[in-house]
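hey so i finally got around to running the thing on that chain from the lab meeting. sorry it took forever, my laptop kept dying and i had to restart like 3 times. anyway pasting the input first so we r on the same page abt which one it is
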Amino acid sequence: MPAPFRPLLAVLLCALALSPARAHFPPEALRRAFPGAEAFGPLEGEPPAVVAYRAGEAVGWVFSTWLVVRSTGYGGAKLDLLAGLDPKGRITGVAVLEQNEPILLTGRDRRDLEAFLAAYVGRDVRAPIEVGRGAGAKGGIDALSGATITSLVLHDALLRSARAVARAKGLLGSAGRLDLERFEPASWGELEASGALVRLRLSNADAEAAFARRGGRLFPEAMGRLDPNALFLELWAGLATPPLVLRNLLGEKAEARLRGRLAADDQILFLAARGLAALTGPGWRRGERLERLALVQGGRTIVLAPSMLEPIESLAVSGAPELRERFLLVLPAASGFRAEEPWRLQLLLPSFAEPEAKVLFELPYAPPPLLLRPLAQAPAEPAWVGVWRARVFDLALLAAGLVLLAAILTFQPWIVRRRRLWRGLRLAFLLYTVVFIGYWAKAQLSIVNVLTFGRSLLSGFSWDLFLLEPLIFVLWTYVALALVFLGRGVYCGWLCPFGALQEFAAEIARRLRLPELVVPFALHERLRAVKFAVLLLVLGLSLGSLEQAVLAARIEPFETAIVRAFRDELPHVAWALFLLAAGLFVPRAFCRYLCPLGAALALPARLRQFEWLERRWQCGQKCRICEIGCPVQAIHPDGEIHPGECIYCLRCQVNFWDDRLCPPLIERRARAERREALARTARPRPGTADEP
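ok and heres what got predicted. didnt touch it at all, straight out
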């Protein structure tokens, strides 16, 4: 190749080599991740990141959560967020490159998702960031409404990858960061015991020995012989910037006034002393520097000016000793002082006998863990542990409800013989299901849970993702056990909030005397096949496109009616209301004919190990009362109860033991009454005994 073309070829080859990296991320996504950046470099480094430039200077980095930590979503599918990070460790922006979260696939929550991710902008990744329901009121980030699991998944992906990049770029130190939020009352002794305040104590003998080692003397002969054990100097020092120290020392009002006068990056030290020696010499205010005090950090000495020293009139902390001197030493950011790192306070004291002779005393200090927040490089415990801890109250209420339900089912032979007791217990529990499980806890199960579980098995199963929503996890565990013991009816009849809502609708219709439409059994048998067709459709779509499967799963009104409490798009609200209206005339119409989750639970129903619903040979032959009264037509004309349709409401068992309603029991009671009447007539009357 001719020599003049070789430089051109080299430039072309470099451009070709760099272009894939530069074009790896969409330009619009890069601009959203780092607003204000004018150019972006190639993808490089470990973990890989793109350098953002402004006016030719590097101003931060852009990274992909998938490339950094291989982030995955709730269902185990790829989750990729593009985020920016500035040199101060703050997130500059977040863009979604790819997500397959079921709750977000329909596009209806795009604005909510963007608002949720926008809440991370400006957040310091080195500081703890709490995410959850109501976390915004405590300085954290509110989870997406009805999508707590998805919120935690997004949070974990973003924060883990951001901290990995920050660590690689040297933004995370080894000591930690000041805790500027935590406060709890503490006495002077507790501050000392924790290491927040450190002390140097010198007796007269200690100080005199220090001067003697330098060939001088401390006290002139005119002072006479002083007690060698008497106090020469007792000095306290400590980092006072955290509220845990400053608020306890000064009180809340004085702290607020002081912080209002200081810049955000100023640091505060506390100095106090008593004894013969003084921290400040005569005329210290008039000098350009404090002659007796200096601060050493690492290999650097920070010169202290008189303007940095502010006397304290009084201390608010309990247990403080009598002090002759009390100061706050305010260090501006320009001083270069790093509050998270150790330092030494130097005190240069002159001799009383020879003012030119001076001895240097030092008091070392290291910020105790009490004043620092951990860097949270990698969680010390799985993310779900904190979620379970935060929802312990909800878990306790759910556990109490599940224990009560287990007791109802276990002692049903005694309960169903008391119609009023059964009715009261059932209505009370259904109210608990709607109010607590549904609207409070948002723990409505869905066919989407089944889809995500199946995809997780195919793409790499992890319990951690499912444990992120504790109430859903506990409910599914309970339902799985109930399927083994009693079948699908335990969930559908007692624990499904939308099912309970339909039952209350049917109760209202009964009170209003609305006509109930009885579906002929032959038609009912054909219509109930529809829900299995819906189930197969949803499962089939999920094999190809989860987005289409989730869209088809919107036939369930659970998200609209329960999780979002009817605050949804108009078509979804209209559909949910239509199903509830249908339930006024055909009890639990949706459960009977359309519910894909009910169909999924019905499939293993025949595998149940116990059959506690009692029947007689007359059922379906001489008597059809239970069949007619069943709210979901789960009882066949021959008297058999279909396990895949039964919701275990126990209504048939109440009728079964009612001797004023069940014909076999009515006949049995009538025979018993006749026998008793015959016995009374055959019994001799008093005073009419037979003559011998």
